[in-house]
Design goal:
heterodimer; A: 135 residues; alpha+beta; Sufe protein. Chain: A; 6 helices; 13% strand; B: 403 residues; alpha/beta; Aspartate Aminotransferase, domain 1; Aspartate Aminotransferase, domain 2; 2 domains; 4-stranded antiparallel beta sheet; 37% helix; globular
């Protein structure tokens, strides 16, 4: 799903129930990582839920495989991937992900208190993008 | 009768809305809300009495000192400490435990053991690991049963002459288990070990009497019993407090200082370096007053009925399973739902104005022992009502439709 479709869907939501049902459904479509790739090295630790993140570079673009043990977090990962997947490091670094989450009224999931691993995951993606743009 | 026991009106925050819904606060094991009386006491202190304590001859300093020492006496009385000098103000239960761990460093060495349990909060694990690293002693953990209770035969097997200290939570923060601490303290003493009780989750829910328990140390926090954050207390037996070295150096904790050496003040001041949290102490005293003025037994019976109601109602939900079913429990109900991650439930309940805690509850060894990644934890306090339980049950049922 593209970001514009997500934006449009959000504009029709009438209350939290529609919104979270949509986010959870997005998460259901996110490919799962098998146990072989859910390794400690790929783990981004969160207090309440965990995220596994793998990065590879294809040409000048970055490809991520990301998974979580929590459904809502998986849905939020799907939203993040619409703007980060197969983009250049510079595009990733330039994108205002916090602004997007504020616009979608999901910003509390990116605040430090949530401890859900999502914020740490975004920080890890930015680090990877920074490293890639230096190479 | 039920109406007269409804004290929720004393707590202004409980009237607010969250995410457009009335707040249902079921996270009191993390921190309790504060009654107006405590909020007023802190404000009154800053508006009328603020001065540094134990230092000056002026009127405000005398009033501030009297307010703080009055609070010390009230908090000491709350836990049955006969002598207020046995009551050290700390930042909370965690600092109280760290204070004891620091003070015991020179008393322990290789071959000695510190005995804890798998049920403990990290606050009653990590300070002992650090003590063991400093001293060369070993940390030993007694097993917990599948129902979430201390395995007593394992406890007695692991309690031996080399055990120098036993450190146990009075009430489990993750499961609500009430541990038989009086018997465990007696057993520890019979082996010549000291006994520390982490009372962070207990004082709000039980009548604690440190004299009757016979423990050497009892650590607890104000914010879990209607008082402010940033203050707590450590009860220590007078003779032990005399022997223990100071925790930190600074003002207040001294009797005389020259560049060469310092003569330390008497307990409890020996352990209270620096300007203390005076406003916090005053708020703590007000919380003790507030508790003393409540029909506590009737309210606790009501709270126990809420926990029973929550357990039996939640168990009726298909796919829901309890984590830990201790015979003796207060306040806490921990559970999981098949196919749903605790974090999803935390978020979906939050959207409905229901505040619960999800995750490992700072008790990762316990979660590992029980084979769960974490739990959904609802924890009750004296201000909760049967309607709160019904909102929780309805909220969980609604969340299940999503996942």
């Amino acid at each position: 799903m593209a970001l514009e479709e997500i934006r449009e869907a959000f504009s029709f939501f009438d209350g939290w129930e529609d919104k979270y049902r949509f986010v959870i459904d997005l998460g259901k479509d996110l490919p799962q990582l098998d146990d072989a790739r859910r390794t400690p090295a790929n783990l981004v630790r969160g207090c309440q839920s965990q995220v596994w993140l793998l990065t590879e570079r294809l040409g000048g673009r970055m490809r991520f495989a990301i998974d979580s043990d929590a459904q809502i977090v998986r849905g939020l990962i799907a939203i993040i991937l619409t703007v980060f997947q197969d983009r250049t490091p510079d595009e990733i670094r330039a994108f205002d992900i916090e602004g997007l989450f504020a616009e979608l009224e999901l910003i509390k999931h990116l605040t430090p208190t949530r401890g859900n691993g999502l914020r740490a995951m975004v920080a890890r993606i930015h680090q990877e993008a920074e490293r890639a743009s230096l190479d | 009768m039920a109406a007269s026991l409804d004290i929720s009106g004393d707590f202004p925050i409980l009237a607010r809305q969250v995410n457009g819904q009335p707040l249902t606060y079921l996270d009191s094991a993390a921190t309790t809300q504060k009654p107006q009386a405590v909020i007023d006491a802190i404000r009154h202190y800053y508006e009328r009495r603020n001065a540094n304590v134990h230092r000056a001859a002026h009127a405000l300093a005398e009033e501030a000192t009297a307010a703080m020492e009055d609070a010390r006496a009230k908090v000491a009385a709350l836990v049955g400490a006969g002598d207020a000098r046995e009551l050290i103000f700390t930042r909370g239960a965690t600092e109280g435990i760290n204070l004891v761990a620091a003070g015991l460093t020179d008393r322990l060495g290789p071959g000695d053991e510190v005995l804890i349990t798998e049920l403990e909060h990290h606050s009653n694990i990590v300070p002992w690991q650090m003590l063991c690293q400093r001293s060369g002693a070993a940390l030993v953990a007694c097993r917990v049963t599948a129902t979430g209770e201390i395995d007593l035969s394992d406890f007695h097997a692991k309690l031996r002459p080399r055990t120098k200290l036993v450190a146990i939570g009075h009430v489990s923060n993750a499961l609500g288990t009430v541990n038989p601490v009086a018997a465990l303290i007696e057993a520890a003493h019979a082996q010549g070990a000291l006994a520390l009780i982490d009372g962070a989750q207990a004082v709000q829910h039980l009548d604690v009497d440190v004299g009757r328990l016979g423990c050497d140390f009892y650590a607890f926090s104000a914010h879990k019993l209607f008082g402010p954050t940033g203050i707590g207390a450590l009860y220590g037996r007078a003779a032990l407090l005399e022997e223990l070295p100071p925790y930190q150096g600074g003002g207040e904790m001294i009797e005389h200082v020259s560049i060469e050496r310092t003569i330390y003040n008497q307990p409890p001041y020996k352990f209270e370096a620096g300007t203390p949290n005076i406003a916090g102490a005053v708020g703590f005293g007000a919380a003790a007053d507030y508790l003393a003025g409540l029909p506590r037994q009737a309210l606790r019976d009501r709270e126990a009925a809420l926990v029973s109601q929550a357990v039996s109602r939640l168990k009726q939900i298909p796919g829901l399973r309890m984590v830990g079913e201790p015979r003796e429990r207060v306040s806490v109900v921990s559970f999981l739902v098949d196919g749903g991650h605790p974090h999803d439930f935390g978020t979906l309940l939050d959207q409905q104005g229901i505040a619960v805690r999800t995750g490992h509850h700072c008790a990762m060894p316990l979660m590992e022992r029980l084979g769960v990644p974490g739990t959904i934890r609802a924890s009750f306090a004296l201000y909760n009502s049967p309607a709160d339980v019904e909102r929780l049950v309805a909220g969980v049922e609604k969340a299940i439709e999503f996942v």
